[in-house]
Write a structure and sequence with these properties.
Helix content of chain B: over 70%
Number of strands of chain B: 0
Strand content of chain A: 15-25%
Oligomer: heterodimer
Largest interface: A-B, 43 and 41 residues
Shape of chain A: globular
Order of helices and strands of chain B: HHHHH
Largest sheet of chain B: none
Radius of gyration of chain B: 15 Å
Largest sheet of chain A: 11 strands, mixed
Number of domains of chain A: 3
Chain lengths: ~800, ~110
């Protein structure tokens, strides 16, 4: 034996192994990643992969047959309810486990465990918002109801049964790339997933921004910049609807108005907020307006566009119901879909259910706070945040009767001054069992069942569209909404006494709704649920324009077919531009324009208001409006704090349409008084400068400028689909922005044999190595749909069936 | 003869080992085979190197080809900053080859050849 050479070469070998197995020397453990029997090569799915399999589980009570079709949609046939949720959990995990875990980790403020320090701020924010606290409360409620408890238990067991089958080589790709393993699923994670939807949909508010604006501007200017009502509004429940007498009227505190002047919050950076466009479109047309005489229901929820998609198509069939639709990997049931009798869809209610109360602590220990003339004890919640490759972070959050004291001296989220304390009162903290609403809808057979089901939807409140084969259509702006006085919750409120508390919830019977209206259709697009005759305060800041164009079109349509609905759902007409154009046309000082500027103005004039993918006019308008809005307001906001509310586009447009001597047109930084014509012309000149560069980089066409992308959850470009050739955008029915838009499109015609169509920008498989990862994206971008197949027993030999998975009891 | 047999043995035992053990068991396999079939050190190194170059290269190629190189396109950009499935497969082959080569080299010093 030659000792020295042996030791040296063994050391080299060991060194190589260590270098290739860890991140000590190389940025990634390349040996592990590239080993054909362990690493990424194992995720390179065979293009002829056969997903057929047989499983036996002791948790099952009977047999469950799953038929996978050519789009990898599972058609699940179970003999009893528990088994179906077990199999749903198993299949969700099989195709989307990594996404499920990442999303629930992020919801729980545990993202730092996976990605390290960069997520610490997010995690602190989400823990302080009380996400886990809320999920725990929700879970208690879900587990006290036998239906939701057994569905969650079954679902959790199914997910874990799948996880148990995993080995190092069969782990999903992202676990290998990021270097960790999945942990077991729990019912709490399902609750967290649902709370995450609440954060996305019911977590929006601008209380600090509005409060700063109120302190900065005069009372009159504030009212003009942020008006309470909008003229162009076409509310969900139409104007003229008579509302029943409110059962109580909230008491307005006497100092509600003057108080706001004293609030001088100053902060430095913006914090993480849900996308304000988290919304959707839905509508249902009655048989009187359709070609077949049967109602048609349509829904397209607008959310962040991610890969893997938030949605996963499935069919769930038990002896009690036969339903098809979009499901959430992370929760049991079908969320948006239809069964043999009815169809339903949701758009976000969008009302403000997250308010802040300023807390007066006795001292920096935060142990006691002043409320109703005495010192009250807080409770503390200790949050341990584990951080990958680093030491854990410990956060202590005080809880007052309002809720967690989210912003304090150690954490301001960038919005509140670090010297003050603010508790967040968020409706999502209250007991709720929203899962029950969906499980009941899955098996609902008629309008009464629908009412019973949606009663359970407290937060996030949603506008539920409904249509039945019986011919009924309906809309409810459903939720458990706090009954607020006018302006309540728009600003920070004092938390030293009970006068500013939410005084009660709006009763179920006082929810604005429509049932078989004369106009023959119901619709919602996140606009105000009702006009100002509704006795409770509905808040401000609702998007207006999609509702306007949807209602305009539905009113003039008749003999409607499924194709008509597809065209409507993918419609790119920009009604906001239609309303704004006269401002530019009437006021442009054409004689002052250069050749280049005239060229762009001509493009604008020739534009037909369609945000078509190849439209140049759409780009000109978008850049022009932004420049116009900036040039109007930049001077007024120059000295304003960084965290402040900015006026909505609708506010500016309506202000100008009402009054061409709109006060803010004048640039207060210059001695001269600018007119609207000056502002419009200046805006075009600035726009032209920008457009020259845009045109040079070949991005003048709308789709190229907008650059709609569907991003992998890690944001890695190679795993994403970038620069899709799709038009539309904010204010259009086809609301495809740069990273956000119609995440699911569904059209259901309730003829005796249901005819339905759907598509989402993604694919059923979450494996980037699978051909089913993003195979729907191109069709979605092109505005096309797949026919949705509700498989029947006996169709097992249909050529659409590509694989069979049998689940049997052990 | 010993050369060919070593190459085959390392490949077969590596496949078997990797069914139950982590990827670096290839180093141990190469070490044991080289120690059991003594050859000159340089020759031993190459039994390990060639064996895993061929094994990992072939396995990766088969898996990737069956996948129409869908994943290889993405991962090669991620790891090598270049869209080249061939490069990724080659890198795979080289990594395995180096580890097994040095493992075999070490094994060759256990007994005099």
């Amino acid at each position: 034996m030659k000792i020295l050479p042996l030791i040296i070469s063994a050391a080299i070998t060991a060194g190589l192994v260590v270098a290739l197995n860890t991140k000590l020397l190389l940025p990634a453990p390349l040996g592990k990643l590239l080993s054909p029997q362990h690493g990424i090569w194992q995720n390179a799915e065979n293009s002829n992969a056969n997903f057929s399999a047989d499983f036996n589980f002791s948790q099952l009570k009977g047999t469950v047959d799953v038929y996978l079709d050519d789009r990898l949609v599972p058609h699940v046939f179970a003999e009893n309810e528990n088994d179906i949720y077990f199999v749903q959990g198993f299949l969700h995990a099989k195709f989307r486990l990594w996404q499920m875990e990442l999303q629930t980790h992020a919801a729980a403020g545990r993202a730092s465990e996976i990605v390290g320090n960069i997520a610490l701020k997010h995690d602190r924010e989400f823990r302080r918002l009380g996400m886990v606290y809320a999920a725990e409360a929700s879970l208690k409620e879900m587990e006290s109801d036998p239906v939701t408890k057994s569905s969650c238990d079954g679902y959790t067991a199914g997910v874990n049964a799948y996880i148990a089958t995993l080995s190092e080589s069969t782990l999903p790709l992202e676990y290998k790339l990021l270097g960790y393993k999945p942990e077991n699923w729990t019912n709490l994670k399902t609750a967290l997933f649902l709370k995450n939807m609440s954060e996305n949909l019911a977590g929006g508010e601008d209380d600090f921004e509005m409060t700063n604006a109120r302190s900065f501007f005069s009372k009159e200017d504030f009212a003009k910049l942020y008006p309470l009502s909008q003229d162009s509004l076409d509310p969900i429940i139409p104007k003229g609807t008579v509302f029943i007498q409110p059962s109580f009227t909230p008491q307005v505190p006497l100092d509600a108005d003057s108080l706001y002047f004293e609030n001088q919050s100053v902060a430095v950076t913006k914090e993480e907020k849900p996308d304000p466009d988290n919304g959707s479109n839905n509508w249902a047309v009655a048989g009187s307006k359709t070609k077949t005489g049967a109602p048609i229901l349509c829904n397209d929820p607008h959310l962040g566009l991610n890969l893997p998609s938030l949605w996963f198509e499935m069919q769930l069939t038990t002896p009690n119901y036969n339903a098809y639709g979009a499901t959430f990997p992370g929760a049991p049931g079908i969320i948006i879909g239809y069964n043999d009798s009815i169809a339903w869809g949701v758009t976000n209610g969008g009302r403000d259910v997250r308010d802040y109360y300023e807390i007066k602590f006795k001292d920096d220990t935060r142990k006691e706070y002043w409320y109703n003339n005495s010192w009250n004890r807080t409770e503390f919640r200790y949050e341990e945040i584990l951080v990958k490759d680093s030491l854990p972070y410990y956060d202590t959050v005080a809880y007052s009767l309002f809720g967690p004291v989210m912003y304090d001296k150690s954490f301001s989220g960038g919005r509140a001054a670090n010297s003050r304390y603010f508790s967040v009162r968020w409706k999502a903290h209250d007991n709720s069992n929203e899962l029950k609403a969906f499980l009941m809808l899955d098996r609902a057979k008629n309008y009464d069942d629908y009412l019973d089901a949606v009663k359970n939807m407290k937060t996030p409140g949603q506008n539920f569209a409904f249509a039945a084969k019986s011919g009924d259509i309906a809309m409810r702006t459903q939720g458990e909404w706090p009954a607020k006085w006018k302006g309540q919750g728009d600003f920070i409120m004092p938390g030293t006494d009970s006068r500013y508390l939410w005084q009660g919830m709006i009763p179920f019977d006082e929810t604005p709704f429509q049932y078989n209206p004369e106009r023959g259709f119901v619709s919602s697009a996140n606009q105000n649920p009702a006009d100002s005759t509704y006795p409770y305060y509905l808040g401000r800041g609702y998007p207006l324009y999609r509702g306007v164009i949807i209602n305009r079109k539905l009113a003039e349509m008749s003999n409607i077919t499924g194709d008509d609905m597809m065209k409507l759902q993918t419609n790119n007409y920009n009604v906001f531009a239609e309303m704004a154009m006269p401002v530019f046309l009437k006021n442009m000082k054409e004689s002052e324009l250069s050749e280049s500027e005239k060229k762009y103005f001509d493009l604008l004039k020739a534009w037909d208001f369609n945000n078509a993918p190849d439209s140049k006019g759409a780009t000109v308008f978008a850049v022009l409006w932004d420049s116009f809005q900036a040039s109007i307001y930049d001077d007024e906001f120059k000295a304003a704090p960084a965290v402040i509310m900015h006026p909505y586009e609708s506010n500016l447009l309506e202000g100008i349409l009402k009054d061409s001597v709109y006060q803010f047109v004048d640039n207060i930084s210059t001695p001269a008084t600018e007119t609207l014509a000056d502002a419009v012309t200046t805006a075009l000149k600035l726009t032209a400068e920008k457009l020259v560069k845009i045109e040079k980089s070949k991005r003048l066409e709308w789709a190229k400028y907008k650059s709609t992308s569907v991003n992998h959850l890690t944001k890695l470009a190679v795993l994403s689909r970038l620069n899709l050739p799709i038009g539309g955008g904010t204010h259009c029915i086809n609301a495809a922005k740069s990273n956000h838009g119609p995440s699911w499109r569904m059209i259901v015609s309730l003829t005796p044999k249901t005819e339905a169509y759907g598509v989402y920008p993604g694919g059923q498989s979450g494996n980037p190595g699978s051909s089913f990862y993003d195979n729907f994206v191109d069709k979605w971008a092109a505005g096309e749909y797949y026919p949705l197949w509700v498989m029947a027993r006996g169709e097992e030999k249909d050529k659409r069936v590509k694989a069979t998975i049998s689940f049997n009891k052990l | 003869m010993k050369f060919i047999v070593s190459i085959l043995l390392i490949a077969l035992l590596s496949v078997a080992a990797c069914l139950y053990l982590p990827w670096w068991s290839i180093a141990i396999v190469a070490f044991i085979v080289a120690a059991s079939i003594p050859q000159k050190p340089v020759k031993s190194f190459f039994t390990g190197f060639i064996s895993l170059f061929l094994l990992w290269g072939t396995l990766a190629w088969i898996l990737s080809n069956n996948n129409n190189h869908l994943l290889a396109h993405k991962i090669s950009v991620l790891i090598l900053k270049m869209d080249s499935p061939v490069l990724l497969i080659t890198a795979t082959a080289v990594l395995g080859a180096l580890v097994a080569g040095f493992g075999a080299l070490a094994g060759s010093f256990v007994r005099k050849s």
